[in-house]
């Protein structure tokens, strides 16, 4: 296989983990910081070049590690003919209006919604969607940011004032008003699609969020739910003619899945695949965008992942716990920031639970609340 140069739009941990997965395959990754227009080495963070045109010229393939990319940059990349997945797919992940339309077009179940750009549309949304209601900015939201919960009508004025600010501050902004879904749990499906239409999906992960941020993901083996999720995955991926890894987040309402949102990229809830699958999501993403056959996605042993949020050290005792794999991202410490994750593997689900308990006993409850509740 010939050497491939892949340019990743975005220079965070996802580009870093693509780089780690690509190296043995002779796939080199350069990362493009869309704010500074610097080309960055994804492991050392050294600046290795400047400017989008240079970055594009040096790449065989261009992909993205996040969806909030200026459309002007996406268009230049698209014109080069090297961008995978397409601009359309990346925009669907970065604009909840386009995303909701896509879910409707693909005929997959999702929460009832309407779009708000002014006060009278807010009133109409309250009548149409009902209370409680979740309000989300169409552009720029992540990790639960840019969201409001309308639980009682008394909150209408104060929420409107905040939403109005958001509408005024961001060009082309809108708010998606969504029914509150009384879900039992949240699951996600990560899969990959190649240009020839081949699709592989990993086992579903069950996800526990704390304050809107993913804390714990566990791969699950539930064939009926898996089949439901896979059908929805195929409908969405085919609709987009998608190339690469795609993540879909679902609400599980008594065994029926509703799509919450999609991410047109490798995803935090798929990090467990680094230790729990034969071929991890980062490698499968590179295989898909480089138009290579997709790799085995089966669960090879019970596996979970816990995020390290806002910490840059862990007790050394973690090395005494068998089958815990720590992955640091090399980022500067900031409160709540995703700094790394730990993948935990076991021979059985009982053993996985035991190991998670051991891990909880050495990690502070304030930083790992989901682990302690487990
Ligand atoms: P991410 O970090 O996944 O990008 P996000 O900021 O894009 O998150 P969502 O995934 O849409 O936002 O919402 C964050 C969390 O809020 C969800 O994981 C879920 O727990 C809750 N939530 C979102 N929408 C609804 C809804 N309609 N009903 C109930 N809970 C919801
Ligand atoms: Mg989400």
UniProtKB/TrEMBL annotation:
GO terms for cellular component: cytosol. Pathway: Purine metabolism; IMP biosynthesis via de novo pathway; 5-amino-1-(5-phospho-D-ribosyl)imidazole-4-carboxylate from 5-amino-1-(5-phospho-D-ribosyl)imidazole (N5-CAIR route): step 1/2. ATP binds at residues 96, 136, 141-147, 178-181, 186, 209, 260-261. Its EC number is 6.3.4.18. Keywords: ATP-binding, Ligase, Nucleotide-binding, Purine biosynthesis. It catalyses: 5-amino-1-(5-phospho-beta-D-ribosyl)imidazole + hydrogencarbonate + ATP = 5-carboxyamino-1-(5-phospho-D-ribosyl)imidazole + ADP + phosphate + 2 H(+). It comes from the Bacteria. InterPro entries: ATP-grasp, ATP-grasp_carboxylate-amine, ATP_grasp_subdomain_1, PreATP-grasp_dom_sf, PurK, PurK_C, PurT/PurK_preATP-grasp, Rudment_hybrid_motif. Homodimer. NCBIfam families: PRK06019.1-5, purK. This is N5-carboxyaminoimidazole ribonucleotide synthase. It comes from Vibrio casei.
């Amino acid at each position: 296989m010939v050497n491939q140069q892949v340019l990743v739009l975005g220079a965070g941990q996802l580009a870093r983990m693509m780089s780690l997965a690509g190296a043995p395959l002779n796939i080199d990754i350069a990362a493009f910081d869309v704010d500074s227009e610097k080309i960055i080495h994804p492991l050392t963070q050294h600046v290795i070049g400047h400017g989008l045109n240079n970055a594009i010229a040096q790449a065989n393939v261009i992909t993205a590690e996040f969806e909030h990319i200026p459309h002007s940059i996406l268009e230049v990349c698209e014109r080069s003919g090297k961008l995978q997945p397409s601009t359309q797919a990346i925009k669907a992940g970065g604009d909840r209006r386009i995303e909701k339309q896509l879910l409707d077009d693909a005929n997959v179940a999702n929460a009832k919604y309407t779009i708000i750009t002014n006060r009278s549309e807010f009133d109409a949304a309250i009548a149409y969607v009902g209370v409680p209601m979740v309000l989300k900015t169409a552009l720029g939201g992540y990790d639960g940011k840019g969201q409001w919960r309308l639980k009682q009508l008394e909150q209408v004025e104060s929420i409107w004032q905040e939403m109005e600010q958001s509408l005024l501050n961001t060009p082309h902004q809108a708010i998606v008003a969504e029914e509150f879904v009384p879900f039992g749990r949240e699951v996600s499906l990560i899969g990959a699609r190649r240009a020839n239409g081949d699709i592989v999906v990993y086992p579903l992960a069950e996800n526990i969020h704390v304050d809107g941020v993913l804390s714990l993901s566990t791969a699950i083996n539930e064939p009926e739910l898996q089949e439901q999720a896979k059908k929805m995955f195929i409908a969405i991926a085919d609709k987009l003619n998608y190339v690469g890894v795609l993540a879909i987040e679902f609400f599980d309402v008594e065994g029926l899945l509703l799509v919450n949102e999609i991410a047109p990229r490798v995803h935090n809830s798929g990090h467990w695949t680094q230790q729990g699958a034969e071929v991890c999501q980062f490698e499968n993403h590179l295989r898909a965008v480089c138009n290579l056959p997709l790799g085995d996605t089966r669960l090879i042993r019970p596996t979970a992942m816990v995020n390290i949020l806002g910490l840059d050290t862990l007790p050394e005792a973690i090395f005494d716990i068998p089958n815990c794999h720590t992955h640091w991202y090399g980022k500067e410490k900031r409160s709540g920031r995703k700094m790394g994750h730990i993948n935990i593997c076991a021979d059985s689900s009982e053993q996985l639970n035991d190991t998670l308990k051991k891990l909880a006993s050495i990690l502070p409850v304030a930083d790992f609340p989901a682990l302690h509740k487990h």
